[in-house]
Design brief:
InterPro entries: Methyltransf_11, SAM-dependent_MTases_sf, Thiol_S-MT
Helix content: 40-55%
Keywords: Signal
Pfam families: Methyltransf_11 (PF08241)
CATH topology: Rossmann fold
Organism: Aspergillus thermomutatus
Number of domains: 1
CATH architecture: 3-Layer(aba) Sandwich
CATH superfamily: Vaccinia Virus protein VP39
GO molecular function, one term: S-adenosylmethionine-dependent methyltransferase activity
Shape: globular
Length: 257
C-alpha cells in the first residue's frame, strides 16, 4: 500500500479534481450551446448533470477496489435500494445469490446509458431497475412498490455528501427499511482534525460547485439521527487526520419494534 500523503499534499489535492471538473463543465456548456443555442444558458442544472456524469465515469471503480466498498456491497441482499448509483459502479459487486431485486434511485438521467452498459456485462439485468428520481419522491417510488418498511437493504456509496438535504434523505431511508433491514454505507464528511476542517471549509465553495458534493457535512450525525439503529457502535471511522475526505463506513441495522 502506498504511503498516505502528508498534510500539505492533502490540502492541495482537491485542486486537481476541481480543475478537471471545471473543464468538463465548460465542455458540457459549449456542447449545449451548439445544440440548443443561448437557451442552454437557462438550464444550468442540465449542464451540471452532464458534467457530473463524465466526472464520475472513470477511475472510481479501480480506486474503490482498494477500499472496503466491495465487501460492503456484498452485504446487500433481498430487495435492495441503491441510492445514487451514478454510472453503475457497484453492479458487478453484488452477490447475485443474495440479491432478489435492486432499485437504482438516481436523479441524474445522464447515467442511464452507463448503467445499461454495466448491466449488459453482468448478471443483474433482469433484477435491476433504474428509477430516475430522488428517494424523497415517494409518489414515484410507491408506483414501483417501494413503500415504508418494504426494503431489506439500502446501499449508499458516496451519496450523502451530494444530496440537497441529507437529513431528509436519511429519514426517508429509515422509513423505507424493514425492521432489521440494513443501511450499508461508505461516506465522507467533516474532519475531527481542526486544521483539516479549516482546509475543508476553504475548499468547500469551489468543490461543492464543480465536483458536486460537500466537504463539511456532519454525515455521521445525519445517519444516527434518522431513526433508531441496533448497532450504532459498529460504525467505523478510519483514522485519517490529514484527509479532506475522511470516511465513515459500516452496516447499520434498523431497530426492531
Amino acid at each position: 500500500m502506498p504511503p498516505k500523503p502528508g498534510r500539505l499534499a492533502s490540502i492541495l489535492r482537491p485542486w486537481g479534481l476541481i480543475w478537471f471538473s471545471i473543464c468538463l463543465h465548460w465542455e458540457a456548456l459549449t456542447q449545449a450551446v451548439r445544440r440548443d443555442g443561448l437557451a442552454a444558458l437557462g438550464r444550468p442544472r442540465q449542464i451540471q448533470d452532464a458534467a457530473s456524469a463524465k466526472l464520475l465515469t472513470g477511475n472510481f471503480i479501480a480506486y474503490e477496489d482498494t477500499t472496503i466498498v466491495p465487501s460492503l456491497v456484498q452485504a446487500a441482499g433481498g430487495i435492495v435500494l441503491e441510492l445514487g448509483p451514478g454510472p453503475g459502479n457497484q453492479i458487478h459487486r453484488y452477490d447475485t445469490s443474495l440479491v432478489k431485486h435492486v432499485y437504482g434511485v438516481e436523479p441524474n438521467p445522464h447515467f442511464k446509458d452507463d448503467i445499461d452498459a454495466n448491466l449488459d456485462k453482468h448478471s443483474l439485468r433482469d433484477r435491476y431497475k433504474l428509477i430516475v428520481c430522488g428517494v424523497e419522491d415517494s409518489d414515484v417510488l410507491r408506483e414501483e412498490g417501494i413503500t415504508e418498511g418494504s426494503l431489506d437493504a439500502v446501499l449508499c456509496i458516496q451519496v450523502l455528501c451530494a444530496v440537497k438535504d441529507p437529513k431528509n434523505v436519511m429519514k426517508e431511508v429509515w422509513k423505507l427499511l424493514k425492521p432489521g433491514g440494513k443501511f450499508i454505507f461508505w461516506e465522507h464528511g467533516w474532519s475531527r482534525n481542526r486544521l483539516t476542517a479549516v482546509a475543508q471549509a476553504c475548499w468547500n465553495p469551489a468543490w461543492s460547485t464543480f465536483v458536486g458534493c460537500h466537504l463539511t457535512r456532519n454525515v455521521l450525525a445525519d445517519i444516527l439521527n434518522s431513526g433508531e439503529w441496533e448497532n450504532p457502535h459498529e460504525i467505523e471511522e478510519p483514522e485519517e487526520p490529514f484527509s479532506l475526505l475522511p470516511r465513515i463506513q459500516g452496516v447499520l441495522v434498523k431497530k426492531k419494534a
